[in-house]
Design goal:
This protein has about 260 residues and is an alpha+beta fold. It is built from seven helices and 14 strands. About 35% of the residues are buried. About 5% of the residues have low confidence. Keywords: Isomerase.
Length: about 260
Amino acid sequence: MQSLKIIFEDGNLLIINKPPCLVVDQASTVKEQTLADILQKDMGISLFRGGIAHRLDKDTSGLILVAKTQPALENLQAQFKERKVKKEYLALVHGIIEKGGKVEAAIARNPKNREKFTVLSTSKVDYVGTFEVSSAREAVTEYEPVNNLQFTIYNLQSIFNDLNKIQMRKLHTVHYNLFTLLRCFPKTGRTHQIRVHLKYIGHPIVSDEKYAGRKMYRLDKRWCPRIFLHAARIGFYHPQTGKWMEFESELPEDLKNVLSFLSS
């Protein structure tokens, strides 16, 4: 059994600080142990998905909300549907963002790659041939910058010491050395929402294999071992008492180490 860090527990729910590299949901294509497996088999939560009330991507770390009873699960699911649950993520993105903003752009599965999602400009797109009719779903993400960051000259040269002068000049030309640490507030809960929206506005998340682009991802992986996305805060109403509750998770060590390469 993989060790799970439990932030809070009572008779109705659990708040777990999910580590990276842990798949949340069971699937026919997933051979490894999932969070749902651990909750059902090792922790005895015999609910659908082990009581997991929402989702996090495999390589995203941070807070995840789990119900221990069916009434609690239904209550929490209703809160998500009614957008009562408040979530905050920390993301390190490419480029400089100087002020906060909002992305309101519908998301649908990418017809060219079924494992990815994309922003669609229309509310409905018909895919022909091998693709079914699919409607884009409303998605809203707010964001605000925490800090603008950049590589120190020493770290840039140290990480990319195998590049020649022309290649190094190209990194500067495309402003590869500039980044922003963002707080992101998803108002809807679409798959890959934050990742897709940040890519859409030209600021992909560092080490996002699906959305940063192949060349950018290869550069990122030299110094950032996984996607820099962390579920840092969650707030909701307790399913039994109705009391508002908030929990916070600080950046894990691997992401703190990534920030050590950068300066403001």
